[in-house]
Write a sequence for this structure.
């Protein structure tokens, strides 16, 4: 009863109420008072198993923009070789393959990202934990090299759940991320990660499992942060970089008076153009996580790619998507992932904490109760956001999407239908008129032909008399 009341009033204290979902709309068009802009767009395919896009708003195309797009491609390739757990040539892959207790040389990027992961692990009380590698793989959501099989594999993970003995063993193993150590040798300039001694075994499985790390939860954010630095260095003030439609770094929007982007966050239970909340922002990073990105359903229950580190299984807290803007993109990625795993009370406490609201970070999440009723919560003050739950938001100009379809007002639709009827009726009248003229012409021609025959006959009779 209380939750229904929340939905009707739209906001209560720092908790906004309504419905919502994942991320981003489309680049806004220039206003009539602004000079026409050239939108330079460059797409990058396949990095970290997703796609990215750079958009620059320019008065004219420059070689500088083309060079920036090439520099970004080089950077993304370098980062993939550093911490893509699915790439056999990456530094993180080498760490994962090492034995428990091993000291593994990594590079600066991998070192920096692991530092961020440790920070966010501590800040979220372990609800963000990249040590869930085996748990994610167990449920069939990790990227593997071709031909690699594991003893816990099922014929079709989307139709059969894993054995509980693996779920509990891998959850226990993931907790050892807290024991990960990092070292930097200033004399040699080398970076190292020291693997925890912790191992687990499972009855009937000959393997001994040691900690493996999946940085996919913050990898796109880390990359977006570095891309944004390149954009700033190149001097492109009006721009954004969109990584997989879940992570963005945005600068200013040249097409709006306040130079802010309207950001729409997708309703995880809605259609393609349905959002649950919209707010405006600029010169920041934005991230979203949700259970609608990768999932399957078994016996009516949804299993998604976000694993709760406290259970070793996909999230089932009722929080179906979380969004935030502010701070570094890598931290934002970790933050939204953690919120989805926290559950309602803990998530509310977290988004209103000194680490989040106190740091000026805007956060919201969409909660689904057992009856399927949706409620929006946010740490923003009233007037800083707009709840659009249940609305088609195709007319909202937000960065990242190019397939928006504006909703046609009902009166315009009626006029279009009436016009169509008029055109069809006019066409029918024209057709009948033309048909009548054709029939009249054919009748006249037939009469002339009959008259000619009569004259000919009479002449023939006279000739025969002679």
């Amino acid at each position: 009863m209380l939750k229904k009341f929340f939905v009707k009033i739209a906001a209560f204290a720092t908790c906004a109420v309504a419905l919502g979902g994942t991320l981003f709309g489309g680049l806004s068009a220039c206003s009539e008072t602004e000079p026409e802009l050239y939108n330079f767009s460059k797409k990058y395919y396949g990095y970290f198993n997703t796609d990215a896009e750079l958009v620059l708003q320019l008065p004219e195309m420059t070689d500088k923009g083309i060079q920036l797009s090439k520099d970004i491609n080089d950077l993304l390739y370098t980062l993939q070789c550093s911490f893509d757990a699915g790439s056999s040539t990456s530094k993180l892959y080498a760490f994962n393959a090492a034995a428990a207790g091993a000291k593994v040389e990594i590079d600066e990027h991998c070192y920096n990202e692991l530092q961020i992961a440790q920070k966010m692990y501590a800040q979220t009380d372990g609800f963000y934990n990249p040590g869930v590698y085996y748990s994610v793989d167990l449920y069939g959501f990790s990227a593997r090299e071709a031909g690699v099989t594991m003893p816990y594999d099922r014929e079709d993970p989307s139709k059969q759940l894993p054995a509980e003995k693996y779920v509990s063993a891998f959850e226990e193993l993931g907790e050892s991320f807290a024991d990960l150590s990092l070292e930097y040798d200033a004399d040699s300039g080398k970076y190292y990660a020291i693997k925890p001694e912790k191992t687990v075994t499972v009855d009937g499985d000959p393997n001994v499992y040691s900690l493996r790390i999946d940085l996919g939860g913050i990898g796109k954010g880390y990359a977006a942060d570095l891309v944004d630095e390149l954009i700033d260095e190149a001097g492109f003030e009006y721009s954004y970089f969109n990584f997989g439609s879940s992570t963005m770094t945005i600068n200013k929007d040249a097409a709006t008076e306040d130079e802010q982007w309207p950001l729409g966050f997708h309703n995880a239970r809605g259609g393609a153009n349905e959002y649950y909340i919209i707010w405006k922002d600029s010169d920041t990073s934005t991230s979203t996580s949700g259970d609608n990105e990768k999932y399957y359903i078994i016996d009516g229950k949804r299993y998604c790619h976000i694993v709760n580190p406290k259970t070793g299984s996909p999230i089932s807290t009722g929080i179906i998507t979380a969004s935030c803007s502010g701070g570094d993109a890598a931290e934002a990625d970790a933050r939204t992932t953690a919120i989805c795993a926290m559950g309602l009370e803990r998530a509310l406490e977290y988004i209103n904490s000194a680490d989040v609201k106190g740091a000026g970070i805007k956060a919201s999440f969409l909660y689904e109760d057992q009856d399927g009723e949706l409620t929006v919560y946010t740490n923003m003050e009233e007037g800083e956001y707009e709840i659009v739950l249940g609305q088609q938001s195709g007319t909202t100009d937000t960065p990242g999407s190019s397939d928006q379809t504006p909703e046609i007002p009902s009166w315009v639709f009626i006029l279009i239908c009436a016009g169509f009827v008029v055109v069809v009726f006019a066409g029918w009248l024209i057709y009948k008129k033309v048909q009548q003229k054709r029939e009249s012409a054919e009748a006249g021609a037939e009469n002339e032909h009959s008259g000619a025959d009569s004259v000919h006959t009479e002449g023939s009779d006279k000739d025969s008399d002679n």
